[in-house]
Write a structure and sequence with these properties.
3-stranded antiparallel sheet; hpI Integrase, Chain A; single chain; disordered C terminus; alpha+beta; elongated
Length: 303
């Protein structure tokens, strides 16, 4: 008897050895939304009844003529589920559906190409300091000038079961992980960075915006702190919650007339998407100030 799609999805989601459990916590939670809808709408379908025509119909339903990123996300989760079903149980029906997925026509979606300008960044930094959000001004400088993603700068809060030995919150059962720490900056203002986009040492004295914001930290505290998270929310003396950070950043951006289509995640300052052999890849057209990289960078950064 052929397994149902629900059987395959549950096996993929529940098996601790599946690729699903290698994803970061927030990505996993996002993907589970797609898996839940797949199971809810089509979980009762037997794998033997799913063919290329069926998958094409589902894809058109998910995209609704314009939501191609959504449709591609559903196809990706369906492919991950049946691939796990084939690899873990050598299920021939999973293999057949997997081959059908490889042959349906999907629409490539161009990544966002929006980028903040230096003028936008300087305006946000100045307004943030004026209002008293020195942490946002500093985070903005790190994100833009060093081309670092928000998560690598401000970190993220995870459930204690997911965060390992992160810093525990005083307010709930979460721990903070992944952001910049003062321990990574030595007495010569050399940042030892261990992020996903580039691993190496960065001389912050050569990063004009970051140096300026660190100068304000020195004025406030007398010296740079020796330990702990770099970006601290002034209202509660803990690292920022990413949602709250985006909300406050957007309010500041509105005040200084940064267009609504720009988001804080566009602060990477120079990263662009390059189409190579039908896929988009991130490219760094300029070198980070003071960057001395190891050779295992994911993206080109000038070395």
């Amino acid at each position: 008897m052929s397994r149902t799609l629900s059987d395959v999805i549950r096996a993929y989601r529940d098996d601790k050895t599946s690729d699903h459990h290698r994803l970061s916590f927030k990505v996993r939670i996002d993907r589970e939304r797609y898996l839940a809808r797949l199971e809810r709408e089509f979980g009762s379908r037997a794998l033997s009844s799913i063919n290329g025509q069926t998958l094409g119909m589902w894809y058109r339903r998910w995209t609704d003529g314009r939501k191609f990123a959504v449709g591609n996300a559903f196809i990706g989760q369906l492919r991950a589920s049946v691939r796990h079903g084939f690899l873990s149980a050598e299920d021939e029906e999973c293999y057949r559906v997997l081959m059908a997925l490889d042959n349906i026509s999907t629409r490539s979606v161009k990544p966002r190409g929006t980028q903040l300008t230096e003028q936008h960044v300087n305006a946000v930094r100045a307004k943030a300091r004026e209002i008293g959000y020195f942490s946002i001004a500093l985070a903005q400088a790190f994100q833009y000038e060093l081309m670092l993603p928000q998560r690598e700068v401000i970190g993220e809060w995870l459930p204690r079961s997911e965060g390992g030995d992160g810093i525990p919150s005083r307010f709930d059962d979460k721990v903070w992980v992944g952001g910049l720490r003062w321990e990574q900056i030595d007495e010569n203002w050399i940042l030892t960075h261990k992020g996903s986009t580039c691993k190496g040492r960065i001389d912050l004295k050569q990063a004009t915006m970051v140096r300026e914001e660190l100068g304000h930290v020195v004025q406030l505290w007398g010296a740079l702190p020796k330990s702990g998270p770099v970006i601290i929310y002034e209202a509660n003396a803990e690292p920022w919650n990413d949602k709250k950070f985006r909300e406050v950043w957007r309010k500041l951006a509105n005040i200084v007339n940064v267009p609504r289509e720009f988001k804080n995640r566009d602060s990477h300052g120079g990263i662009r998407n390059v189409l190579i052999a039908g896929r988009y890849y991130l490219d760094l057209p300029r070198r980070r100030p003071g960057q001395r990289c190891s050779r295992d960078c994911r993206y080109w950064c000038g070395h």
